[in-house]
Design a protein that fits this description.
Elements lengths: L1 H57 L5 H29 L2 E7 L5 E3 L18 E9 L1
Antiparallel strand pairs: 1-2, 1-3
Protein name: Zinc ribbon domain-containing protein
Keywords: Coiled coil
InterPro entries: Ribosomal_eL40_sf (IPR038587)
Length: about 140
């Protein structure tokens, strides 16, 4: 019966890890798509500004108010891209806590109940070497 409980608990830990990994990958993909959308929007507004300036110059006309309007649109698109990029950088600096298994020396997350390498159950903080430490992702 003990083996079945251990197997059940190990499967639960693995499933939780898979869910967390999937969520992390989904978040990274979403952030990448947000950056790409902001870059496309910036490129589009820059092309529109260029087409306007070319058209005005070609026809010997000038419309400073319209050019200023397009310049403001480009500036807003640049700000949006900078904001999305900064948000992505902030989230990628996410610091996680880890501990080291006494049995095999593997790094595991701070809230792990079992070692992902050897299966050692962590009863207390004494089951880890060096306690909990910060690591960069």
């Amino acid at each position: 019966m003990l083996d079945f409980e251990f197997l059940k608990q190990s499967a639960s830990v693995l499933a939780d890890a898979a869910v967390k990994t999937t969520k992390d990958l989904t978040d990274k993909g979403k952030h990448k798509m947000d950056v790409l959308a902001a870059e496309r929007h910036l490129a589009k507004t820059q092309r529109q500004l260029g087409a306007l300036v070319y058209s005005l110059h070609k026809n010997g006309e000038s419309n400073d108010q319209l050019v200023k309007k397009y310049l403001q649109a480009v500036a807003q698109a640049e700000e949006q891209l900078a904001q999305v990029t900064a948000e992505q950088a902030e989230e990628s600096r996410d610091v996680r806590m880890e501990k080291i298994c006494m049995r095999c020396g593997a790094e595991v997350s701070k809230d792990a109940t079992f070692c992902s390498c050897c299966g050692q159950k962590f009863e207390s903080a004494d089951d880890t070497r060096g306690g909990v430490r910060h690591t960069e992702k």
